[in-house]
Structure to design on (96 residues):
């Protein structure tokens, strides 16, 4: 069971990196640093959008409108850190 919890924690860490990559790519696209007409950039942006949007959409619907600032990735990262540091650790203590 400890291995399963460790694997879940690893997947959550990987998802945090994906959220960060998605946020950075959205900034690069917004400031016209990368061109979305490029097939490689379009493919990467589409993949990151498809993998992060189902998690970010419910958070965005709860948060108030802050203009052009999107803090939903930060909220999701904080939730993931809470899950890793509180829930998974306490569940692991039950099986030790």
């Amino acid at each position: 069971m400890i291995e399963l919890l460790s694997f879940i924690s690893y997947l959550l860490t990987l998802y945090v990196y994906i959220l960060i990559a998605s946020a950075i790519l959205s900034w690069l696209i917004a400031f016209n640093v990368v061109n979305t007409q490029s097939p490689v950039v379009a493919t990467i942006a589409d993949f990151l959008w498809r993998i992060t949007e189902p998690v970010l959409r419910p958070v965005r619907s709860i948060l108030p409108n802050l203009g052009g600032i999107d803090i939903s990735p930060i909220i999701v990262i904080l939730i993931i850190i809470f899950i890793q540091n509180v829930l998974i650790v306490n569940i692991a203590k039950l099986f030790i």
About this structure: The mean pLDDT is 95. The helical segments are 2-30, 39-62, 72-94. Residues 2-94 form one domain.
